[in-house]
Structure to design on (182 residues):
């Protein structure tokens, strides 16, 4: 049985998670084997596993930090009050293809790709992130009822996915033009 870490270990674990999140955002999930992650964290792979039960726990915690960062970035870009779908959509689409947001979107694409290839871990992570975005989107939409907010949030997620895919293929100019974005 594993004992609860003391506060100093909690602080060190939090520092490691911030470094791991930085590494994943800079290099992607495909560059996230144990040794590069340990190097990014400034420790050995053995010590890294001292702070986490296994790589799955470490990646879950790392992706949790990334999810908190993306939600903070989206929260900073939200309108002061809920907007109708047609007004909110271009604001949100412009935000997600912004250079500041792009590292998050690249990781999102990797998660979606791994999930599409049958990886149950990344499917669960992707579902959790997607549900978080849907809840955030619904809260931003001015609609006559909750059901409409949820439908519009789902439509917004579908369109956002299209923008992210097109940007990854070098077609973001065409996607931006489709929505009248600069």
């Amino acid at each position: 049985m594993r004992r609860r870490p003391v506060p100093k270990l909690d602080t060190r674990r939090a520092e490691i998670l911030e470094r791991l999140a930085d590494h994943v955002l800079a290099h992607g999930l495909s560059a996230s084997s144990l040794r590069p992650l340990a190097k990014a964290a400034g420790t050995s792979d053995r010590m890294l596993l001292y702070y986490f039960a296994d790589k799955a726990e470490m990646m879950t915690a790392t992706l949790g930090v990334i999810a908190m960062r993306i939600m903070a970035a989206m929260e900073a870009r939200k309108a002061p009050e809920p907007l109708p779908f047609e007004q909110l959509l271009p604001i949100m689409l412009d935000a997600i293809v912004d250079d500041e947001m792009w590292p998050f979107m690249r990781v999102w694409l990797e998660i979606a790709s791994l999930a599409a290839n049958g990886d149950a871990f990344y499917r669960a992570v992707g579902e959790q992130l997607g549900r978080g975005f849907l809840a955030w989107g619904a809260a931003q939409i001015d609609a006559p009822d909750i059901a409409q907010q949820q439908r519009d949030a789902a439509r917004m997620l579908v369109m956002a996915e299209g923008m992210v895919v097109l940007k990854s293929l070098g077609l973001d100019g065409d996607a931006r033009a489709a929505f009248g974005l600069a």
